[in-house]
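2.7 Reproducibility. Because tokenized structures are sensitive to small changes in the input, we list the exact sequence used for succinate-semialdehyde dehydrogenase [NAD(P)(+)], including any N-terminal residues retained from the expression construct. No trimming or masking was applied before prediction.
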Amino acid sequence: MVSAGSENPTFVATDTFKYMPKGVVKEGKEDLKLNYPALLRTESYINGKWVKAKSGKTQKVINKATLQEIAQVPAQNKDDTEAAIDAAHDAFQGWAKRTPKERHDLLYKLYHKINEHADDLAHIIVAENGKALQDAAGEVEYSNSFVEWFAEEAVRAYGKTVPAPDPKVRNVVIKQPIGVAGLLAPWNFPLAMITRKLCPALAAGCTGVVKAPCEAPLSALALAQLIDEVGFPKGVVNILVSERGQDEQEMGKTLCESPKIRAVSFTGSTRVGKILAQQSASTLKKLSLELGGNAPFIVFDDADLDLAVSNLVQCKFRCTGETCISANRIYIADAIYDEFSKKLAEQVGQFKVGNGMDKGVTMGPLNNEAGKKKIEEHVKKVKDAGGKIVLGGNAGEGLFFEPTIAQAPDAKQLPTDEEETFGPLAVLYRFKDEADVIKRANDVSVGLGGYFFSQDVGRCFRVGEALEVGMVGINTGMISQYIIPFGGVKESGFGREGGPTGIDEFLEEKTLVFSGL
Ligand code: SIN
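Resulting structure tokens (single pass, no recycling of outputs):
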């Protein structure tokens, strides 16, 4: 609640989120009702068959809003991973020899299947991830945009000719699939991050072993069901399910060290990305790493303020703030700071927090305990450093946390700056001039997304070029699209997903030199 009309607004942190759910923590099992119940698969998918873990181990998948069990799935290990790698390896030659048009047609059929079941897929995402239904529906659409785009790209893996200095020579460069791809997907977009990796691999003629996210494997298994129905040959797509811990780490290591795997694509933390890079060194795999971000979001005093506020709300709180490109350090020009804070608190104060399935809910719970604990720690660190919580700031029951706005103390970097919060906490800093804010924005080890708002064309070019990130939103906080190269610089990793170059992560150039002509 914002006290309207005040020069120096004060905010009430309690009772703001009157819809904050109470008594939602339940025991027992929940029946996830789907229009097409076949999508709720509880076995993993290897070599065209639904299988249990070789060890017989299982794990629970929990609804993140109610904490009820929604399914039991396999908890697989190294042995299952090796079986999946063998299946993908055996299937590779056959799949690579299919014409690009055949690969296009199957991917296109999958696109239609996903459209047909979009509603059920969104409900599965809400249950296992926690995000609100509108975010989950957006994720299904986003996921399928990669399926459609890479169906179209399958037939466009053009090579080139390179003019030779010798008149008797002709050089032709062709593109060929790299081989089996190991694809490690995160829980924050349990469907979209898989289609963004798997579809370019399939379009290129590669086969894939997907390690579904531990906390949210059901979307991946539902996708496997549709892949099976569409008629992809056995072994072309294999989906493993892991449980957090030692076995999961060994599964990742097996994928990275196997000589049968030629490319590894991972989305997740910089810490894990570095481990995977080390493990992949022994077989020199082609790597694509989309790692953590810590996005600066800068609002200059010449910006359209309302546009900047509404875009920050979307950028920061989309999917409960659990995105790698979420605004993490928000820099507001001194002259507009108070007005910006007030407008932001007014909009964020309207959030309805609750079970993502419920009508009208705009923000769901976090995905896991560790994530919730991190936000609690960040809120405490901000307060300890002299920052002021102006909205929210409280943990709720289960995995809920209030959308929170904090004001950083003047001209001070906070201990939370080096590490992305990955949750619904927006920390606002003041800045005085362009050079200072660019320096502060770039003063971190990572660089995935970055945003700024300004109506000065010269500044748009200057700042856009100066920010050390892989993607810059200029007068927008929403940059994600299937059609752009998505990826980072510095310790946010390398490689690009989606867009015109996404398929290249799974292709190799081969040069044919014709001589004696
Ligand atoms: C991510 O959080 O890693 C992906 C976000 C997006 O593609 O929008």
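The chain has 13 helices and 22 strands.
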